[in-house]
Amino acid sequence: MKYNFNGKVINIPDAEIEKNMKTLDISKDEAIEMWLDDNDYTENEVVEELTKKAKEVKRYEKADKPRKERKVERKVDEEKKKLLNLCRIPIEGAGGIVTNVKNEAEFSFTFGDNCYTVKLVKHRPPKK
User: The whole model's pTM is what?
Assistant: First the structure.
């Protein structure tokens, strides 16, 4: 729909006007006025006040000084280490070649022409 506003011809989508009329139960003139407000063709004191307040909100930005990095010492889980070694022994006995052991979490091996990885995951106890 073409709408003449202050000497300007504005093309307003009919579907949006009809949708707003149905959903908000307003007249056609009110729907057109709302569309003009939403698309900054008219000035609205409430909108201007809210925009001004939004621009005044303090933005949090990165601090000048860097954060202190904590050095966390990793604890070795002896139980997982023992279980992983128990899994490794039969593989080595069957002719597998263990190539890579990562902490006490996983190990890689080759058996024939194929490569495999065994990963041991310890789950947390369920919450009560």
Answer: 0.42
Residues 46 and 86 in one domain: no
Tens-place pLDDT, residues 64-87: 788 888 898 888 888 988 888 888
| Residues of the domain holding 37 | 2-56
User: What is each CA distance from 102 to 76, 86, 89, in whole angstroms?
Assistant: 12, 15, 16
Q: What is the DSSP string of 36-59?
A: HHHTTSS--HHHHHHHHHHHHSPP
Give the Cα separation of 128 and 122 in Å (integer): 18
**Same domain for 52 and 83?**
no
In the block, tokens 């001004």 appear at 52
- The widest CA-to-CA distance across the chain, in whole angstroms, is 91
pLDDT attached to residue 115: 92
Q: Is pLDDT of 58 > 80? A: no
List the end-to-end C-alpha distance of the chain, in Å, as a whole number. Answer: 63
